[in-house]
Specification:
Layout: H1 3-9, E1 11-18, H2 24-34, H3 59-64, E2 71-77, E3 80-86, H4 94-101, E4 106-112, H5 119-131, E5 135-140, H6 149-160, E6 163-166, E7 168-171, E8 179-182, E9 187-190, E10 202-204, H7 211-217, H8 219-235, H9 241-245, E11 249-254, H10 263-273, E12 280-281, E13 287-288, E14 296-304, E15 313-321, E16 324-325, E17 330-332, E18 337-339, E19 345-348, E20 351-354, E21 357-358, E22 363-367, E23 377-379, E24 396-402, H11 408-421, E25 425-429, E26 435-439, H12 443-456, E27 460-464, E28 469-474, H13 478-488, E29 492-494, E30 500-504, H14 507-516, E31 521-523
Parallel strand pairs: 1-3, 1-4, 4-5, 5-11, 6-11
Antiparallel strand pairs: 2-3, 7-8, 8-9, 9-10, 12-13, 14-15, 14-23, 15-22, 16-21, 17-18, 17-23, 19-20, 24-26, 24-27, 25-26, 25-29, 28-30, 28-31, 29-30
């Protein structure tokens, strides 16, 4: 194996997904802690004198205790280069999470053991299953009184449609929580709140009949563990790595991320079984191999003002094949132009460091002057188009009203840049210059207004409209399309790319309208041209 192949094979790129408040950002902090990337884990909802989390770096994220934007963090662990992406859990920021899932090779799904499988967990698991993305599951908050572990496993299989394989098992729960027995490593890890779970907290027990188990956790819990493990072996299939890689089976770990507990065992197993960089799909059904000689990369996220002091704009790129080199000239497929970057960066959330090269699986930042768009391909000259990263039809529309006419340019710039980021979608009516903001959830308006005021010094308000549904419209017959536009001009607008969009009060109106409008196609995602 040559040096480049070795670098590719040692990389692991994954996203953490969950329902809000399941502990996703907390476990991100603890993975960074065990990986040596940070020395003190932050608090998601913290007081002024407490260290904030690394991944929730935006002011609004820290104030509300939620993830608004995907954070990228890289660290080394046991000889592997790990690229970790902490995604928003809240449904109002779904599109950011969906885009992230297109550029990772596996996922870690966090489930609150008190609440069990929740709505966002179902949706995100469905997205992973559609893409056949391998999933490892972490049952969190075992130090609280919650659902029975067996019940949790059954719920995952029934509601998420994936086979479970317990890799660890809790000894007690809630107030009686004493630790976790690693079925993967045949070790008992004793519960130590807020500890680093070092060698002293771990006891090797290869045989559960060993009286050491009774001495460590008490006779009653020891007997319960023996009974549970015997039942697990009868009910659930053994771990099969290929089934995991195919997205059919999920290894399951139990623990308490807040207390650093069970996280190291999870991380060790992840390093052993998670896939290295995988081929990325192209339009037409072909793939680009990570071992292909020539470089290719996919822009999947854009973030303006990542560093408020410099008002910069960064395009996030997944390296898909070859080796990316600093100061080398590359080809921007959509524009047909070449470019080179002097300061490509690696990430630790909002903190960045300049790099000289990057390999498949790596997520790097490129300074952007407005050239890039989400979904763009970067190559060494080849014409490649990665499968589209679509926008979804918004469900809430509001009119943008400028509160300060002297700041019109700042407002326009802010709306344009935040639309390019995917924060919101902006539409312009055909019969006027009126602009509408379309979002999936109400919180996006709060984020938009906050960022317009703090980053662009622009003030506006949002007025309600009657619309709650939209679709993209297409027709190959220009005369037929012109006739459709003439009849429905008051309900039509164009998105930022100039594509025609039809607005309606509800989905039923759309269905009825297009039943009558023969020859006009309509789509609820923007990738209909792919």
């Amino acid at each position: 194996m040559n040096p480049i192949q070795k670098e590719i094979e040692r990389r692991l790129t994954f996203a953490i997904i969950s329902h809000p408040d399941a502990g996703k950002t907390t476990i991100t902090e603890k993975l960074l802690l065990f990986g040596g990337a940070i020395h003190t884990a932050g608090a998601v909802k913290s007081k002024k004198n407490t260290r904030k989390t690394v991944s929730d770096f935006m002011q609004m994220e820290q104030e509300r205790g939620i993830s608004i934007s995907t954070s990228v963090m890289g660290f080394e662990y046991r000889g592997r280069k790990i690229n970790l992406l902490d995604t928003p859990g809240h449904e109002d920021f779904s599109e950011d999470t969906y885009r992230t899932l297109t550029v990772v090779d596996s996922a870690l799904m966090v489930i609150d053991s008190v609440k069990g499988v929740e709505d966002r967990t179902r949706k995100l698991c469905e997205i992973c299953r559609m893409r056949k993305t391998p999933i490892i599951t972490f049952m969190n908050k075992l130090d609280r009184e919650g659902r029975d572990p067996m019940e949790l496993l059954d719920q995952v299989e029934e509601e998420l449609g994936i086979t479970v394989c317990p890799m660890s098992w809790p000894v007690g729960q809630g107030r009686e929580f004493r630790g976790v027995y690693s079925l993967y490593e045949k070790r008992l890890i004793l519960f130590d709140p807020h500890g680093r779970q070092d060698a002293e907290s771990s006891v090797e027990i290869t045989d559960l009949k060993d009286p050491t188990l009774d001495a460590k956790v008490g006779k009653s819990l020891a007997e319960k563990l023996r009974e549970d493990v015997a039942l697990l072996k009868e009910v659930y299939p053994p771990f099969d790595r290929q089934s995991y890689l195919d997205g059919i089976q999920t290894p399951v770990f139990f623990g308490s991320a807040l207390n650093n507990f069970g996280v190291r065992e999870l991380l060790d197993c992840f390093v052993d079984i998670a896939p290295p960089p995988l081929p990325r799909p192209l339009e037409g059904g072909s793939y680009v191999s990570p071992f292909a000689e020539k470089f290719s990369g996919l822009i999947f996220k854009i973030h303006a003002n990542l560093d408020p002091r410099h008002r910069d704009r960064i395009a996030f790129m997944r390296v898909c094949s070859g080796v990316f080199e600093r100061n080398k000239t590359y080809f921007h497929v959509r524009s047909g132009k070449t470019f080179k970057t002097a300061n490509p960066t690696a990430f630790m959330a909002q903190d960045r460091s300049i790099i000289d090269e990057a390999y498949p699986g790596d997520i790097i930042g490129i300074h952007d002057t407005g050239t890039f768009k989400i979904g763009d391909a970067i190559t060494e000259g080849e014409i490649l188009r990665f499968t589209g990263i679509p926008s979804f039809a918004p469900q809430i529309f509001k009119i943008v009203v400028n509160l300060d006419p002297l700041k019109s340019k700042q407002l326009e710039k802010g709306l344009d840049q935040l639309t390019e980021e995917g924060v919101v979608q902006v539409f312009t009516r055909l019969n006027s210059s009126q602009r509408l903001v379309g979002v999936v959830g109400q919180l996006q308006f709060d984020v938009l207004q906050f960022r317009l005021e703090t980053e662009y010094k622009a003030q506006c308000r949002f007025e309600p409209t009657e619309y709650t549904s939209a679709c993209w419209v297409h027709c190959g017959d220009k005369a037929r399309l012109d006739e459709f536009i003439r009849r429905h001009e008051s309900k039509l607008c164009r998105d930022r790319e100039g594509r025609l969009v039809f607005l309606a009060r509800n989905r039923w109106t759309i269905e009825r309208t297009f039943q009558e409008e023969k020859g006009i196609q309509y789509y609820f995602t923007s990738d209909y041209e792919s």
